[in-house]
Amino acid sequence: MDRRDYYRLADRISVHHKVVADSFVQQSNAADAFDLVPGFHLLRDLFALQLEAGEAIRHITEADRALGSFVHNLDQRLGLLTQIVTGNLTRVDDEQQGDEHLCNISPGGMSFLTEDLLAPETRLALKIVFATTSLALVCFGRVSYCRLEDEVYRTGVQFLRLDTLGEQLISRHIIHRQAQERRQRLQASR
């Protein structure tokens, strides 16, 4: 496997983008480009806590299987409740949310489908919501390429000014999803 592919994942992601000026990128926060519902940023914090809980549950399970199973069950129920409570936080007020597509993502950037032809070097504000988890981020990006693909455009974007926590959460999401996919392949082959 190519080292660059280790932290790259094809995943179902909703992407909403807005073209912004370079001066907006330098002087503003990406969230300023969207009318986010109150609490939208909590999704990022909830996802970080969920990842930490997963690691703790693994340690508990290693020490005591019955207790670990019980805590895992509680975590799953809490996860379902979180999905219900946070469901409204992923929408953008008075705007249509980007459609959910299979996107490629890494801590450094992503590619997604859009109906817009975007010139290379165009600056974008991005609202990214992962379909498989409660992770949601807003950040800036720079268009690297935009190619016609089946009557829509595949747009590659390099993230700009993505903070360290955002990079870490994307990396951890990728690792978590890759581990899930490996487990599913192993179970299917049995």
Could you please describe the fold and organization of this structure?
- The chain has a single domain, classed as Beta Barrel (Thrombin, subunit H).
- It has a 6-stranded antiparallel β-barrel.
- The chain is an alpha+beta fold and 190 residues long.
- The N terminus is likely disordered.
- It is built from 5 helices and 6 strands.
- Helix content is 42%, strand content 29%.
- The two termini are 24 Å apart.
Provide keyphrases for this structure.
single chain; 190 residues; alpha+beta; Thrombin, subunit H; six-stranded antiparallel barrel; 5 helices; 6 strands; globular; disordered N terminus
| Beta-strand content | 25-35%
Which ranges are low-confidence, i.e. pLDDT below 50, for 5 or more consecutive residues? 1-5, 91-97
Q: Estimate the mean pLDDT confidence.
A: 82
CATH homology superfamily: predicted glycosyltransferase like domains
Write down the domain tally: 1
User: How far apart are the first and last residues' alpha carbons, in Å?
Assistant: 24 Å
Q: What's the total count of β strands?
A: 6
What's the CATH class, please?
Mainly Beta
- What structural class do the secondary elements suggest? alpha+beta
CATH topology: Thrombin, subunit H
What is the rounded Rg?
Answer: 18 Å
Number of helices: 5
Percentage of residues in helical conformation: 40-55%
Q: Main β-sheet: number of strands, strand sense, barrel status? A: 6 strands, antiparallel, barrel
The neighbouring-strand order within the major sheet is 1-2-3-6-5-4
The assigned CATH architecture is: Beta Barrel
The shape, in one word, is: globular
